[in-house]
Amino acid sequence: MKRALVTGVTGQDGSYLAELLLSKGYEVYGLRRRTSTPNYENVEHIKDRIVWIEGDLTDLASLIEAIRMSKPDEIYNLAAQSFVATSWPQPIATSNITALGVINMLEAARLIKPDVRFYQASSSEMFGKVVETPQKETTPFYPRSPYGVAKVYGHWITVNYRESYNMFACSGILFNHESPRRGLEFVTRKVTDGVARIKMGILNELRLGNLDAKRDWGFAGDYVKAMWLMLQQDDPDDYVISTGETHTVRELVEIAFEHVGLDWKQYVVIDENFTRPAEVDLLLGDCSKAIKKLNWELEVDFEQLVKMMVDSDLGKLRRSLQFN
After folding, report:
1. 172 and 32, same structural domain?
2. In the chain, which residue ranges form alpha helices assigned H by DSSP?
3. Catalytic residue check, 40
4. Is 95 a catalytic residue?
5. CB contact burial 180-199 (16+ within 10 A = b; e otherwise)
6. 209 located within any domain
7. Residue 19 annotated to the active site
8. What is the enclosing helix (H) or strand (E) of 168?
């Protein structure tokens, strides 16, 4: 039986990855940070099938102990301060977790289990102010946020450990990927939750920033399959994971409102408070390498994704109203 250690396992990606690994017969170890109120919402249905280990990416000793305990064949480093907007008011915390946390994890792996297969969650935010479109594995990075800068460090230190110590270390450069488990602070979930609340008569407006921002949005459940596939290859490498299509926030809004039979123009209010200090206008990934080398494929398209998220948020609201 293969063993996997997953950081960030209670997050969106971690929960889908844990499901996938469990379905493949893995023993899954989840690293969890000590918090006063643990949040298991995304993994409630599989919580008892995960072996939990206390640890923190900013604490090397705890990571060494986690690897000693789990003896993993694969490590998936998904934990991060993952919200771009928060990285401006909290740049140092973002750097400590999202950048330095990666080298702590790599160093712990090198010391205790150097033959482990290591996956690093890189991000399309590393491309930032893009120098070419679409962006591929060889596109130069130009990050436009403290988060993007931290992710660039995590990416390059992973490459460095691969080349310096001959470790099987891969990075997946994931473009925006969403799901019903996405945090409410992200624009996709903010829209689908807002639409559900407006439909149910709880809200009467939805305040948004730049409707013209374009993103390459895919389904998180599809993207975790690519993570797993990277660690099954003969040689470690880095891959862009994306849909190869771009959609505006306006399209997202239109599909979501139309799905519940409402006209978005009657409810959406543009609010300057939701624009970023340095905006990333266009992210579009070229995932041809992943499709060719990993035999990876997308199963959920953009419209299906938005409708899935709206339906999920409507269901959550209806259940909560029944119980209140």
Report:
1. yes
2. 12-23, 60-70, 91-94, 100-112, 146-165, 187-199, 220-230, 249-259, 288-294, 302-323
3. no
4. no
5. bbbeeebbbbbbbbbbbbbb
6. yes
7. no
8. strand 168-174
Q: What is the gyration radius of the CA atoms in the chain, in angstroms? A: 19
Residue 38 lies in a domain: yes
**Residue of 82, 123, 179, 312 marked active site:** 123
Cα–Cα dist 244/224, whole Å: 17
Q: In this structure, are 116 and 140 located in the same domain?
A: yes
Q: Are 210 and 312 in a shared domain?
A: yes
Q: Give domain status of residue 134, yes or no.
A: yes
What CATH number has the domain bearing residue 254? 3.90.25.10
Q: Given the residues 26, 29, 76, 147, select the one marked as catalytic.
A: 147
> pLDDT tens, position by position, for the chain (324 residues)?
999 999 999 999 999 999 999 999 999 999 999 886 789 999 999 999 999 999 999 999 999 999 999 999 999 999 999 888 899 999 999 999 999 999 999 999 999 999 999 999 999 999 999 999 999 999 999 999 999 999 999 999 999 999 999 999 999 999 999 999 999 988 999 999 999 999 999 999 999 998 998 899 999 999 999 999 999 999 999 999 999 999 999 999 999 999 999 999 999 999 888 776 656 668 899 999 999 999 999 999 999 999 999 999 999 999 998 876
Could you tell me if 123 and 173 are in contact, meaning their C-beta atoms sit under 8 angstroms apart?
A: yes
Give the residue numbers spanning the domain of 236: 3-177+217-241
Catalytic residue among 125, 161, 267, 312: 125
**Reported pTM:** 0.95
In a domain, 66, yes or no: yes
Q: Is 70 helix (H, G, I), strand (E, B) or coil?
A: helix
Q: How far is CA 37 from CA 27, 34, 322, in A?
A: 25, 9, 24
